[in-house]
Amino acid sequence: MSISFxxxxxxxxxxxxxxxxxxxxxxxxxxxxxxxFGCGAGLCGACTVLFDGSPIRSCSTSLSQVExxxxxxxxxxxxxxxxxxxxxxxxxxxxxxxxYCQSGQIMSALALLRENPSPSDDDIDAAMTGNICRCGTYxxxxxxxxxxxxxxxxxxxxVSGGDGRAVS
Amino acid sequence: xxxxxxxxxxxxxxxVAPVLGNDRRHDSAHKHVAGSALYIxxxxxxxxxxxxxxxxxTQAHAHILSMDLDAVRAHPGVVDIICATDVPGxxxxxxxxxxxxxxxxxxxxxxxxxxxxVAATSxxxxxxxxxxxxxxxxxxxAVLDIEAAMAADSFVRPLHRQVRGDVAAAxxxxxxxxxxxxxxxxxxxxxxxxxxxxxxxSEDGGxxxxxxxxxxxxxxxxxxxxxxxxxTEVQVEVRRMGGAFGGKxxxxxxxxxxxxxxxxxxxxxxxxxxxxxxxxxxxGKRHDFHNRYEVGFDDDGRLWGADIELCGRCGYxxxxxDAVVDRAMFHADNAYxxxxxxxxxxxxxxxxxxxxxxxxxxxxxxxMIIEQAMDDIARYLGKDPLDVRKGNLYRPGQDVTHYGQKIxxxxxxALIDQLEVxxxxxxxxESVRAFNAANPILKKGLSLTPVKFGIxxxxxxxxxxxxxxxxxxxxxxxxxxxxxxxxxGLFVKVSQVVADVFQIDPRxxxxxxxRTDKVPNTSPTAxxxxxxxxxxxxxxxxxxxxxRLVDFACETYGxxxxxxxxxxxxxxxGEREVDWAELIQEAYRGRVSLSATGHYATxxxxxxxxxxxxxxxxxxxxxxACSEVLVDTLTGEYRVxxxxxxxxxxxxxNPAIDIGQIEGGFIQGMGWLTTEELVWDAxxxxxxxxxxxxxxxSVGDTPPDFRVALLAEHPNHETTIYRSKAVGEPPFMLAIxxxxxxxxxxxxxxxxRYCPPLDTPATPERVLWAVEAAQxxxxxxxxxxLPVV
Lengths: 168, 789
Description:
The structure holds 2 protein chains of 2 kinds. Chain A is of the alpha+beta class. Chain A has helices spanning 22-29, 63-66, 74-77, 85-92, 102-115, 121-128, 138-154; strands at 3-7, 10-14, 48-51, 54-57, 70-72. In chain A, helix 4 packs across helix 7 (138-154) and helix 5 (102-115) packs across helix 6 (121-128). Chain A is globular, with a radius of gyration of 15 Å. Chain B has 19 helices and 29 strands. Chain B is 29% helix and 24% strand.
């Protein structure tokens, strides 16, 4: 049975079991390796992608649940040249250490900023609490999110990300 | 080559700012945020690649009576199965001492021990197949915790003692005497990238292994031993790790060995990536400890003597436990002069997974006992704990450790004074007391604790490193060294060292994956020593190349060495000035070797185990933290309100990287002492085997007010690279201030005259127990008609 859904703006059809976790479809079938396996139980956030714009854990979401929906991965927000403004803020604030959780962190932060253009520390904590970073980069994650929010406010409203949508 | 590349003027740029001592981004920062950095599991799979799962012991200690693997073999997709008897070479893969069979051989010694391994065409098939095994066991008595091990004299290695003077006499003569004990919990590494490797057969009977390991050389050596081939037939590559924290120092090797045996037998590339639950059950963790102290002291709280016993739970095999318990002993003084002292370290054998390296490597567990003693002395004397701590710091005249090493650089007295002011400790102490007097339920706690951490491997021969530097004819540089990148920023730091020697922008330097065929016989990237060792080895390689270039220029252009100056991407040759790359092309045409190796061995270090004395550490790194907490005495729940840190990294190679290590190390240490609780059941099964039941800090646990600064103007007194200091582990122990602040809040219930023990992790449950014990002690004082303090 073929399952169709949109990944980073393109319709993809896969002939795999409907209970296949989205993470494996993205990584093994579509070669999108930026989304990581962390715990396999939806508890660490390393596999976070956007489902119709909302963050979900792709390791515990089956393909049957995403049929007909719109999935955005880290590759989908990364422009061909340079970085998405949120990724740039992440890099400028020296957030990543080992880097492994960071694509999931960035996807959660992207969804947060689309909902809330100027999040407080409490807002950030509430939105990002499901994304674990064992290196402990949290202070810098907070800084980078606030810097991206600030840059968004002070820059031209036409600034947009690699997927054609604005940061916030 | 026949024709060299054309060089536009200034092709290789000068660094925009001094390359050492300035913020430089992690060399993979762009790839990390774009999701394009490759970890083992991201490497494209070759056709026919096989996947591994292991059949594991369900018993803590048992004879294996029989194994029926027919159903496993018959499962669709299964290509090969191996047991202990199928290992062609040596079965034991203990990193230091024997005791770790690659697969259990007749007897199992912990729940989760691998017994057999399956290679199948998919991970799913492999995992389904291993469940079909029928294994019959004859259970044997199991020793599961430290108390049981001590009672049964069950040890993986003999105890070690460090003794100075006559501690019994000092305790007897001291005006005051206190004793106490504590249980310090272990810790799961929970690197976000689990253990993973790929083994590919090579044409001469060996394998090529790509692994997520801190110690590629040891993986290489152990794989060669299990295959029964010379080391040169096995090569190992590590590009990066998605976190390691000590958990990939020895624990990556068993996977590589299993994958390598299966790769040789099947002729296929074999990937072994552990599912998270397997990773948590099958790989070693931080040692939990049961510590005791007895101290004698005077009216000022100054120690006259300390008798300290440290018992570490090593699990079923020695692994690195000898060195871990040794490091706990070396840090049982933390920053304090113990005077007359006896420190004993026991290495307890239990039928649980073999505990291993974890950031701090026993040091944190050793420090905990003396920090408890400092707080207890302060309560007993009615003093501020900070004053007791300051009074006991090593200073000129009281500057020799209990293992005989003289402290040569006294950083902490001034560092603590500075933090005391910048954190506003005294005024906040008054505010906390006032708050507690006014609030019957919520109580605040405040504590300022120091860290002094010894830098060097205590195994002397590990204190060496190698590097390989190539300069290509466009002026770009390829750098390789024995260190591995696990997120700590080692690669960018070492590239800064190279860029500084030649005065070119670090963008022209590519640090390549760590490989055993580029730099051989390397040490693990551990003990915080990565940039100290590899930075110096790379520096030495660069100085060899620099000397060759200077000699060439002098000979070719008739100059004195002083007339050859590397500056801002260019080279001054007397009156002439050329681009860096131009000189390189001229040197190449002049048939100068543009490739060099460098080696470094840490000087001055030695330790004699027979006397328990020596100079095991090249130098010490220091820091101090001041933490404030708010405790709800009805529930034991609490928050960390503010943390101020001042930390000594000598002259920082890269402040952005160093401060990141301090922030992250502190948060990880706070998790260890507060929320991360390992729980086993009565049969030795790990119950905390997923992030659902093992709580590591999340963003909301980060202190809302978190101020981190580097100590300025304190270069290392030893000749380290750029006079910098190691930073990986020391900040982890700054989190002891949070635990001590929790005890301070509890002590407020007794008028600061007594604080019950608070074992770690100090979960809300344990804090509540301490609160209740404090309240009970007050009640007993009232009932006994004693003066209530």
